[in-house]
Design a protein that fits this description.
The termini are far apart. The chain has two domains: about 130 residues, no CATH class; about 80 residues, no CATH class. The protein contains nine helices and no strands. α4 packs across α6. It is about 70% helix and about 0% strand. The chain has about 260 residues and is an all-alpha fold.
């Protein structure tokens, strides 16, 4: 039996997609499980760099592509690694890159061991130290140590406290920014109040304009009534064509006053 070409192409595409997803799953599993032990965790072992060699960011980019929070599909455990551990490792990846990519910081770390604590390899002590170091970096004005959106929130709050001179752990207004909610009934009443207020103001403006137009029309009418006797006396002394010209001139003058 002869197969349709379209079905062959569809089957080939589906097989390619499955192989690609399986390859990605294997790659992420290899990256997540290939992590140094707590005793041997340092910038060189995390980024797989030689101590005396030049810094190559290939491993850093590979880790970021897996550990970056925006790429997390699963909020819980993934490949046997909990979310809290992934967040902690991502902070360590950023810290290791910050040390090895800066020649001065790398030299200080190599000679004196400054910039990386032994407890950063994992566990509560390492997590606390990394979080404290990230907060210190954020206080200095840099956001390079921010791993997740909570870090960016704290970094912004630190900047607001520094700008307003608040160093007591509270925001510029005495507390952290809180979401403000309104009941549905109150929200609807507020909208109705605004709509009624706008309608009243519009009606008031229309009424005021109508009164002004009526007063202007009445004033023009009274002025014409006052001029009628004068016009009659003057017209009696003029000829037919002169009376027509006088009428047109006065009419144009009245129209000009109305506008």
């Amino acid at each position: 039996m002869k197969k349709e070409p379209g079905l062959l192409r569809l089957g080939a595409t589906g097989g390619t997609t499955r192989r690609r997803m399986h390859g990605r799953w294997q790659h992420e599993h290899q990256v997540l499980t290939r992590w140094p032990s707590a005793a041997d965790c340092n910038p060189y072992t995390i980024l797989e760099q030689a101590r005396g060699g030049p810094y190559n960011k290939r491993r850093f980019y590979e880790l970021v592509m897996v550990y970056h929070p925006d790429r997390w599909v699963h909020g819980g455990e993934y490949h046997g690694v909990p979310k809290a551990t992934r967040v902690e490792r991502y902070r360590q990846i950023l810290a290791a890159n910050a040390i090895l990519s800066d020649p001065a910081r790398r030299r200080v770390y190599d000679e004196h061991g400054v910039g990386w604590a032994p407890g950063e390899g994992g566990g509560p002590a390492g997590a606390a130290h990394t979080h404290q170091r990230a907060q210190t970096a954020r206080r200095r004005g840099g956001g390079g140590m921010n791993a997740v959106w909570e870090d960016w929130e704290e970094w912004r709050d630190e900047g607001e406290r520094a700008a307003h001179g608040h160093g007591d752990g509270r925001g510029a207004r005495g507390c952290r920014q809180q979401a403000v909610f309104m009941r549905n009934r109150r929200f609807v009443l507020t909208l109705l109040l605004l709509a009624s207020t706008g309608s009243c103001l519009m009606l008031l403006a229309v009424g005021t304009r109508a009164k002004r137009m009526a007063a202007r029309r009445l004033k023009t009418h009274e002025a014409l009534l006052e001029e009628l006797p004068v016009m009659g006396t003057s017209a009696a002394r003029l000829g037919r064509q002169e009376r027509i010209d006088l009428f047109l001139a006065r009419r144009l003058a009245g129209v000009a006053r109305q506008t």
